[in-house]
């Protein structure tokens, strides 16, 4: 599924650590066609999504809601004071349609592994 690009290998910092960048292969399917194939399956259904407030999860929630799905968005609030994901997620959730639900929980709320 993934393919390395020729110039994708580069050194980081002290030249000892190297990282290879990889990009997905082109699927040959236009974005409109791919999205159109998924939309009919969402209308009138309940969809859950992890919502961090970032570009990917925000887009997913709005696309599902736009197609008529009831969105249940879940956000894990981390204890790190520098982590602002839950604040961004709250802002996003406030803009979702009224039929959507946003649930926030902490690591302490999770069952032990």
UniProtKB/TrEMBL annotation:
Biological processes per GO annotation: asparagine biosynthetic process
Gene3D superfamilies, per database record: HUPs
Superkingdom: Bacteria
Species, as recorded: Streptomyces piniterrae
Span of domain Asparagine synthetase: 46-110
Top-level taxonomy: Bacteria, Bacillati, Actinomycetota, Actinomycetes, Kitasatosporales
Protein's UniProt name: Asparagine synthetase domain-containing protein
GO molecular function: asparagine synthase (glutamine-hydrolyzing) activity
């Amino acid at each position: 599924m993934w393919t390395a690009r020729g110039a994708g290998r580069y050194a980081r910092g002290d030249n000892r650590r190297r990282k290879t960048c990889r990009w997905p292969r082109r699927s040959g399917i236009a974005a409109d066609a791919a999205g159109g194939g998924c939309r009919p399956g969402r209308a009138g259904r309940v969809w859950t999504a992890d919502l961090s407030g970032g570009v990917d999860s925000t887009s997913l929630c709005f696309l599902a809601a736009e197609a008529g799905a009831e969105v249940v968005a879940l956000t894990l609030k981390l204890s790190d004071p520098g982590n602002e994901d839950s604040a961004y997620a709250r802002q996003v959730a406030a803009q979702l349609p009224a039929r959507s639900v946003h649930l926030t929980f902490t690591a302490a709320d999770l069952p032990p592994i």
